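Figure S4 source data
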Amino acid sequence: MMFDFYEKRKLRGIFFSRPVAVFLFLLALVLSWSAYGRFVAEQETRAKRLGKATELVGLKARAAIIEAKVKHLESDQGVERALREEFDVAKQGEEVIVVVDGQATSGQATDNPILPLPHEPSLFERLKFW
């Protein structure tokens, strides 16, 4: 019976010694640091997920717009409209009206008005400081 008492006292002395307390404190510190790292990583992942969800909504809206454009281009009217906007073409038999800003010098509109080009300064003129 006495042996048990001394044995418990010896074990208690080992467990409550300073080296064991320092070791347990350091172990708790390392585990806390690891848990904090996981917390920070989870917060970053959550923020990225919300950003990607917002981006996904924008991409879905853009896809819907593109699908509508493709559907419109599948019709003859859509193709004709796209060609007219892109290349300024006219069908056979249609007339084209060209609106020119400015007045002709003779008072009448000419078939081919020649407009002066704006003067673009040369490299030497741009480098002048005086």
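Figure S5 source data
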Amino acid sequence: MNSNISIRDYSDFVDAVTSNPSKDVDVFVERILELSQSGVNIPRLMTGANGICSEAGEFMEIVKKILFQGKPLNEDNVFHMKRELGDIMFYWINACIALNLDPMAVVQENFNKLSARYPDGFSITRSENRAVGDI
């Protein structure tokens, strides 16, 4: 592998490995219309996915500033984190609605998955060496 890759070469590489729906609005719209036939509310799913990531970033920004930049861990900042967690929940519920999932069924599935992974509580070994199918 060439260790002296130019930014132009890297740009060409990125373009070559990027999907057509990511690069072409017409192909993207065609894909959205195709997926809309699935019974999943694609605009709501996109809203949920984008919102979860955006709000998680806002939550992490507060945590980062507390941990690494001297921001105080005080009542105001805990309240700010509480509000960001509420925003994450808002978008999480949107994603559940988009996928026709009962939010409590999602919570139950997560409980079942983690209970099977960690039957005796957290374990580094079980965290790093998962059973087949444990995603």
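The longest helix spans residues 42-68. The mean pLDDT is 96.
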